[in-house]
Design goal:
3 helices, mainly beta, Porin, globular, twelve-stranded antiparallel beta barrel, two-stranded antiparallel sheet, 15 strands, about 10% helix
């Protein structure tokens, strides 16, 4: 596999994960509408998580190992801006994934409409296998309406688009749908909530500046969790319809092994497990300043 293509393709899956843990749709757990406006319209949301694997849109970006992250999101009425930092283990060795974003989140009756622009930054990245600095930063736009049908069911759609995904020249378009079903409060002890949720999505990826026409793919996840005060424990199954050979092309996994079916983009038939089925546990903490008062 050509080195120039490999380092470019490596970021396609990995950088996608930075769409931010602060956006609940990215976890297939749509957020409930915010509470009625308080006397002070300014607030700050913040939180952190520990996961057994960090998977986004079907890909592991922590080399099937644990990951930690944190976020802070100041907001004023419908306006918000934020930063999310995530630990990763990637071929191009960034110090972390840093997600800077700003947007609007108006409440239209039972619908929360989230619209934002995100800048993805990969500090101190290098070309895989070298110490040569390489830039993977890029911009992406997101639109996500979430409809609270009733106290039990919430439905959401997530769309995003990047003109030059991971600075490769390839366009990227995502469309996914997710749902969450909350258990009746009488089912569990006081103070504990439970839910089941799932997401199905499709990514369309264009042609890179090197002429590589990358494959489109489906991804999905299903799981559930328990919520106690500011803590959420989530257990989730993830998978995609990609072959392990396609996964090696898209991720540039340096640990990919030979033995697969060769192709023009993968002449050695390398195979990666970063896109295959996995069960992931995640413990998260989410809080706002207004709740501390």
């Amino acid at each position: 596999m050509r080195g120039s293509f490999r380092h470019a393709a490596a970021v396609l899956a990995a950088s996608a994960a930075l769409a931010s843990s602060a956006m609940a749709a990215d976890r297939a757990v749509p957020a409930a509408p915010p509470p009625p406006a308080a006397a002070n319209p300014f607030d700050v949301a913040f939180g952190a998580f520990l996961a057994s694997d960090f998977i986004y849109r079907g890909f592991s970006i922590s080399d099937r190992g644990p990951s930690v992250g944190a976020y802070v999101v100041p907001r004023y009425e419908w306006l918000y801006a934020g930063l999310t930092a995530i630990s990763v283990d990637l071929p191009f060795r960034p110090d972390a994934l840093l997600d800077f974003y700003a947007g609007l989140r108006p409440v239209l009756g039972p619908v929360v409409l989230d619209m934002r622009v995100t800048y993805y930054h990969f500090p101190n990245s290098v070309t895989p296998g070298t110490n040569i600095p390489q830039k993977y930063d890029y911009w992406q736009g997101h639109v996500r309406p979430a409809w609270t049908v009733n106290e039990t069911l919430t439905l959401a759609v997530h769309g995003s688009h990047a003109v030059s995904f991971a600075n490769t020249g390839a366009t990227e378009t995502l469309l996914s749908g997710s749902a969450i079903v909350r258990a009746p409060g009488t089912w569990l002890p006081t103070g504990i909530a439970a839910y089941a949720s799932g997401e199905v999505g499709h990514q369309w990826i264009g042609t890179t500046d090197t002429g590589a026409n990358l494959p489109d793919y489906l991804f999905w996840n299903v799981g559930g969790g328990l919520v106690y005060k500011a803590f959420t424990l989530d257990l989730r199954y993830h998978d995609t319809n990609m072959s392990r050979e396609e996964c090696a092309i898209l991720t540039g996994d340096l640990g990919a092994t030979p033995g697969g079916v060769p192709s023009a983009l993968n002449p050695l038939g390398l195979r990666s497990n970063w896109c295959s089925a996995a069960i992931v546990g995640r413990l998260s903490f989410d809080m706002t300043l207004s709740r501390l008062r």
